[in-house]
Every structure is written in structure tokens, then in C-alpha cells.
Design goal:
The structure is a single chain. The protein has one domain. It is 41% helix and 16% strand. It contains 3 helices and 2 strands. Strand 1 and strand 2 form a beta hairpin. The longest helix has 16 residues.
Length: 82
């Protein structure tokens, strides 16, 4: 597993979802980030992802995030939480 990519994914969950620092998305997602399946009403770029993350976090403030799996290879990775 690529440790830099894994570290980035873990920092993403910690900074964005646990701490609510959506501005951290600028340093955690690639400049050309594109969400292939954005929620209805949202764009697909990094700025839209900040809006999505803020909206989702505001709607679920009572919920805690636990990292279940992180898979990374090269500069691509995915994490799942519960």
C-alpha cells in the first residue's frame, strides 16, 4: 500500500469529517479532482466537494466517523467509514 496516499486519506477523514475543516480539501484532493457521481444539485469539482462535505457534516453532527478500510495503490486510494 502506498503510505503517502493512505496518509492523505486518513488526514482527509480526520480534517474534513471529524474536524469540519472543509478548507483542507484544497490540500488533500488533486487540483483536477472530479466526482463521477455528485449528489443532485452539486457540481463535480473540488469547490463543489467542499460544499457537499459541509452540507453532509452539518446534517450529521451527532454522528461519529470510524475508518473501516483504506486501500491505496500509487496515487489512487479509497477509504470507507461507518
Amino acid at each position: 500500500m502506498d503510505m503517502d496516499t493512505k496518509d492523505t486519506i486518513l488526514r482527509y477523514y480526520d480534517q474534513v469529517w471529524r474536524s469540519g475543516n472543509v478548507a483542507a480539501i484544497d490540500t488533500l484532493l488533486a487540483d483536477d479532482y472530479a466526482d463521477e457521481t455528485p449528489p443532485p444539485g452539486f457540481g463535480a469539482d473540488r469547490e463543489a466537494h467542499k460544499q457537499i462535505a459541509a452540507a453532509m457534516r452539518d446534517a450529521s453532527r451527532e454522528r461519529t466517523m470510524e475508518i473501516v478500510d483504506v486501500i491505496a495503490e500509487g496515487d489512487r486510494g479509497v477509504g470507507s467509514g461507518g
